[in-house]
Amino acid sequence: MGDRQNGIVQGAGYANGNGTNVVSRAVAAAAANNHHSSRKGGRSSKRYSVSAFYSMAAEQDVEVEDELAKAQRRLRDLKAKISGQSKKNFVLERDVRYLDSRIALLIQNRMALDEQNEMVSHLEEHDDGESDYYPDDRKMQQYGNLFFLLQSEPRHIATLCRLVSLSEIDTLLQTVMFTLYGNQYESREEHLLLTMFQNVLAAQFETSTEFGSLLRANTPVSRMMTTYTRRGPGQTYLKSVLAEKIYSLIEHKDLNLEINPLKVYEQMINKIEEDTGELPANLPRSVTTDVAAANPDVQAIIEPRIKMLMEIAESFLSTILSSMDKVPYGIRWICKQIRSLTKRKYPEASDFAICSLIGGFFFLRFINPAIVTPQAYMLVDGAPAKHPRRTLTMVAKMLQNLANKPSYAKESYMLPTNPFVDENKQRMNKFLNELCEVGDFYETLEMDQYMALSKKDLIINITLNEIYNTHALLQQHVDILAPKEKDHLRILLTEAGTANTQVPRKDNKTIELPLFSRWEIPIQDLTTALMSENNITQNDILYMETKAIYVQLVRSLPHLSQSHLDLDYIAETAATTKDATLVRKGIKVKDMLRELEDAGVVDHRDGYKLLVEEITQELAHLGNLKEMIMQEIDSLDAVFKSILDHNNYLRSQLESYKAYLQNVRIQSGGGEKGGKGSVGIGVEVDGRPKKPAKAQFQGPVKFGHNQLERDGVIAESNVPENRRPNIYFAITSPIPGTFIISLHYKGRDKAILEMDLKLDDLLEKQQDNVQLLDLEYVQLDVNKTLQLLNKTFVTKNRGKR
Known about the structure:
This is Ras-GAP domain-containing protein. It comes from Mortierella isabellina. Keywords: Coiled coil. One of its GO terms (cellular component) is cell cortex. The protein is of the alpha+beta class. It has 31 helices and eleven strands. The strands form four sheets. Strands 5-7-8-9 form a four-stranded antiparallel sheet. A three-stranded antiparallel sheet has the order 6-11-10. Strands 1-2 form a two-stranded antiparallel sheet. Helix 5 packs parallel to helix 28 and helix 9 crosses helix 21. The N terminus is likely disordered.
């Protein structure tokens, strides 16, 4: 059997070597597929039960050098690039969001943030070089076990995603979506990720208290669903379906379809004033919505706009409804789970109510964000002009109203577009229900899991901080994730010990982490068990191997496929060529064919009819496969280019945000006077970088314990009553946005304790409704502390300018 095993390795396109493991994987895959299928009598049914493995093997051929094999390799490389670049874009988008939140806090408080280099240190950046933080071999093995378990048992990640806070979810999602399941086009990882979604959604439905709140709030679950749509397949769909439609609209930069009566009235009187130099007495500058809506001229302007707006929305809707076959499987499968869970949890829910939930995911989380901000989804270059941008927003509102039934209570001017909803509701619900009509993947996943059990090259590319952050979150919630001592996850976390702290960004290397199961079943035992349980015989394997080699011979000698397949002639032709590999295979396959006939599996008198049919089918499948691969390559080439363009856009946006923060720090934090030559945003004047002003060291300013307690700054104190009169606090500001609070006892030079306080951290605590700041001996009220720092340092400093 050794030669035959080796033959199937080559016939299916695997490298020579560990033939036993490949055959074992073939048997395991076949068994997994056969386990759930109906059993039929006879030889042929068993042969078809193992065909799933053959097709998969043939599609991953690495030995044949025909056009199909080259296209397959090119497609695999392209998909790997898209997966990697998507992850980089996610990191940049997260960093832009982070800076954006800091800018918002800065503007609200009108104060400087921390020094720019402190801010930049938060961002994820990657460089090359050696690191002292690289895990040793033992740690690598422990993390390989841990992440294999997390990847292959998605319930752990599903539970963790529900436990973490909103501030933690983005970093975890980066690891889950783009690292743990980062191969976005590999069936096992995609199916495991979807299994995780099933767990998360089921828990969301189980814990929800009312139907109206399902999947609508900004929660870790909704953030997960949105992030999933940003993976490669979702981006491909958006570009192929929406890009051309959006581009044709934004070309008309001056097309104004505003239908809000107040805005239309304002634009109208501005135009009259511009043309005539004055306003008629009957057109006051400020009017109410009702007055504007009752104006005949405003009505005359709005009426044709409503008609055109509904035509544009109808055009977008028709394009989306006709794209069913392009919607990624994973997104349709999530829609299916939403429908299934709703019916089980709310059996009385109407079809319209169920469709509104499906539409809430498909349109609110997937389609509409791309319509409203197409530049962020790489559908167009640059932001649309003012009027097209407003039109796209109104189209998205109409689609959302159609799919998800939100109210126009606060936007009554949109009510005239309701005929669009009334005319298309049935079409929309039919589409949303059809989205759910996809098969499950459990049989395929079981086959893939068998394959993964014996596969020795499962590898993820992961950063050190991703490992340590995930490890820390698992440790934090281990009692919920793995409550029993013998739970595999608890065992692995115990062995791995305490999670490392986050490393500096310059040391946050990306490493290749091999994954393997700590509790792996010996492949020999697995094979034996499967062969016994599922009655997969040696003849099954021989038949599959023979078919695989014949397909490879015809691909290597394509002229042999031009007429009816003569298996004896094909084997003889290969055995007499000048190619040593083909000669060996030709001789071997002749022996194999004879052995199959001796076993009564095939018969030369009917021209090996069944075997010829199956080989012909496989060749036809591979021929169609080549066409599909070439089409997919063309599509993904465009997607990859867009992703790269978006990466450049995000980098430029990030740099602009950094420059903005630096400039605002200089202006708000002290040291620079406004005046001639000063700028509001940016850090260049006349093309030359401005020199930042030297930061003035402020303080120390002293406050007694009793004074701060009276003012409410100290909310709680552990200092004994009799010592409080001798306790005072000294606050200094060495650089804008940073404060050092030290606690002193009168008569002693050295401080009892010191705390380095960053302004942005304090502002974030205020935003998150954190009431107290712990200084060990005292608890400071966050809001009162901010008021004190503003009054003492910022306002005082501004007065000097």
